[in-house]
Amino acid sequence: MFSRLTPQHRAYAPPVHGLLGKVFRELGHDVTMLSTALPGGGGQVQETDHATIHFLSGTTPGSLDDRFWRASARTFDDLHRQGPFDLVFGRGAATWGFHHLSSAAGRLPVIAHEGTYPLWLHQLERRLPGQAAALARPLALLRLPLDRRYRDCLQRASVVVCNSPALARALRRVYWWNPPNTDYIPYGFDLEPWPATSGDAPPEDPPRIVFVGRLTTDKGALDFIDILARLRHPTAVIEAIGPVSDKLAGRLMALAKEKGMSDRFLMPGPERNENLPMRLRGARAFLFPSTHPEGLSKSVMEAMAGSLPVIAYRIPGMDVLVKNDVTGWLVAPGDTAAMAERLDRLLSDPSLAKRTGQTARQRLDQDFSPAAASARWVNLLTDVVGKT
C-alpha cells in the first residue's frame, strides 16, 4: 500500500522520533535527521534503517539550545542546496532554528509532532477542566515568556500532529488567540507478539491484578496499597511490574505491612518488553492509577493487547483508549474507593473481565494497528505536501 504514495518526498526531521522516522521511510520518504552531538562529543553521520542521522558537532548532547538551533539551520541549508527537501518535521522547539535562521523558512511546510502532554499543560488541564478552560487564559499569559520558542514552533507549523485528541484540543485552547492547526494520529501498535489466546488463559487463584510502568508517586504507586486494602476480595494480589527507587520501595512495603497487605503487594522489578505477553497472561485486570501526563499510554495499549480490562484514572488522553463498560473503566483521579469497586466487580464476574478484555484487544486491532496509523499519515503527508 505504501508504494501508492507518489512522488517520493525528502523529509528533514530535527531530531525526529525513531519510530516515526521508520514509518516515513516505509511510506516512501527519504528521511534525514539532524540531532545533537553524541555524548562523546564531535559529529558524525550514521545510516540507520529509518534515516540518515547527522550528529551536529559543537552542540550539547540532548539539549536544544542556541548552539543546536544555529547548527541545525546551517546544516539544513547546506543539505537543502545539495538536494532540496519537501518537508520539515520536528517535536517541541526542535524546529525553532529552522523557522528563524534558515533561508528556506516560510517556503517549506512544517509538521510538528507532540507525543506527550507537556507537564505544565497537563497540570493546567487537571486544575481547570471543562467549562473552566476560559480561566486558563490569565495563567497561560503568565507562561508566555517561558514557552515562546515552543509556542512559536506550534503556531508556525502547517499542522501539529498529536497522538491523542485531548492533547490536540488542549493546545488549541491554551493558545486561543492564535491556535495551532492540530490533527490526531495515534501510534500504531503491533499485535503480532501478543497471542490472540491471551484472554483464554484460565483465571489465576489467587486473582492477580497487574500494573506495568515506572513506580513513582505520580504514577499512582502509593494508591496501590489503599486500593488493595479496600478490596472485598480477601486474596487478590496486585503485582506492580517496573523499576522503583529504593526509597519508594521501602515506603511502599512499610505501608503494605501497616495495612496487613505485605503478602498481597508484589514488586518484582522491571521486565523485558518481549516477556510482557506471558507476564500479563492469566491476570484478571490491569490497574493504572497514574496522574502523570499521558499522550497515548503504551502500558495501557499493552494491557489491551493482552486482553485485559483496564481501570485507570480519568486524566486527559486516557479516554481515547479506555471506554467505560466497553474496554474498561475510568474513575476520578484519586478515587481509590471507585477503583476498588470496579476491581471487585471484575473479580466477582470472570466472564465480564474476559469479555471486556477481548473487546479491548479488538478495539486496539481495529483502531490502533500500524496499518491504520500509516494510512492516516499517508493522507496527512500527501495533503500537506500537496498544498505547497
Structure description:
The protein has 388 residues and is of the alpha/beta class. The chain folds into two domains: 2-188 and 369-386, 3-Layer(aba) Sandwich (Rossmann fold), CATH 3.40.50; 196-367, Rossmann fold, CATH 3.40.50. Helices cover 39% and strands 16% of the residues. The protein has helices spanning 18-26, 66-82, 96-101, 119-127, 136-143, 148-156, 165-174, 221-230, 246-258, 276-280, 298-305, 336-348, 350-367, 370-386, and strands at 10-13, 30-36, 44-47, 52-56, 87-91, 110-114, 159-162, 182-184, 208-212, 237-241, 265-269, 285-288, 310-313, 328-331. It has an eight-stranded mixed beta sheet with strand order 3-4-2-1-5-6-7-8, with helices on both faces. It is elongated and about 70 Å long. Residues 20-192 form the Glycosyltransferase subfamily 4-like N-terminal domain. It comes from Tabrizicola soli. It holds the Pfam family Glycos_transf_1. One of its GO terms (molecular function) is glycosyltransferase activity.
- Beta percentage is 15-25%
Radius of gyration: 23 Å
Q: Give the overall pLDDT as a whole number.
A: 85
What's the N-to-C terminus distance? 24 Å
Runs in which pLDDT lies below 50 for 5 or more consecutive residues are 1-16, 128-137
